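Schema walk-through. Below, the input block comes first and the output block second. Nothing else is stored per chain. Lengths vary across the set, and this one has 212 residues.
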Amino acid sequence: MIGFYSYTVILTYMGLASAIAGIFFAGGLYGDIPHPTYAIVCLMISGLCDMFDGKVARTKKNRTDDEKNFGIQIDSLCDAICFGVLPSVIGYSVGLNTLADLPFLILFPLCAVIRLAYFNVTEESRQKKTSEVRKVYEGLPVTSVALIFPLIYSFQKDIGESFPLVYEAFMLIIAIAFITRFKVKKPAMKTMLIFVGIGFLEFLWLMYKRNC
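--- output ---
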């Protein structure tokens, strides 16, 4: 079979599987009605997987250049679905379902794909010059939506009928941030664990607000 198969891509594929499940829930394919809360949880799971897949990949010694490049490409392709397409489908499920909303639903994944493609190009060039781990990112990392949108969604009931517009506004802001040229320091392991803790607290808050 074509491709490279090892434990280094398992988390990446798990994140993709979670995103596809999220699209399934948000698209109303389960029970014939949208389940955006389930989709948001799937988004968070995808974010958790993406946060550590690179760490796992680097534990494999003597990776060939083809294996490294495959890892870069497969990670970005999966991220495009997890953090580009899924948030737009969630937007549709919470009420962004008019023709006027369509440009926003298109713009978000488009900006995510542009950012990911740019990252692939620059990362490939960087790895030809050095073997050091990347220390900074340009633009807002797409994985950040796994923490941003769940927090926003948790206030859906409080915001009420205006929530779709609020979600749409954040989609626009985040999409622009994806392709804006500013530097973000790559988080260290300690910071990543803090993000995991924040994600867990967000999950508990989301479940609490859902049952209120």
